[in-house]
């Protein structure tokens, strides 16, 4: 008797594979942050224009807190791609990144409050934005690096973030409302990654 093991096929990851290959081409050109953000925004906008590729395991909310799933890390840790999953009402503390980053909403909406530090705490650098599916925002020490992000819709929200480092391993900070920094290394919620490299299907 032959026993066939059924392996769940999952979604087609070729969009994500193409994105990481194209982003590697961009960072191969050099470390000009403005150029990377400009080219990266075009690539991320294209990636999030179609919501048919993110496997369910990397879009799963947790009732306790927002989730940060690593989807891919460049072999030289020049960039990482992460899915953030927000249940209703979930939010980050105020935090920084220390490297360039792009935030693109795939599903739902994300509310972004951008801050600068003052002697007594923080002030908003612009009116809070609500990014909807298909929209992209940028952060970096040059363009503004401190923000607080929260779910901007009633259901589950999913966004795809790209950073100029292995972001889960970067030493950075969260901040109390009075501006007191607290060191923080985010890590990731997942221990396995989507398989971008099986080209047999
Ligand atoms: Fe952030």
UniProtKB/TrEMBL annotation:
SUPFAM superfamilies assigned: RmlC-like cupins
Keyword terms, alphabetized: Dioxygenase, Iron, Metal-binding, Oxidoreductase
Pfam families attached to this UniProt entry: CDO_I
Top-level lineage group: Bacteria
GO molecular function, one term: dioxygenase activity
Entry keyword annotation includes Transcription regulation: no
Family membership: Belongs to the cysteine dioxygenase family.
Protein name: Cysteine dioxygenase
Source organism of the structure: Asticcacaulis aquaticus
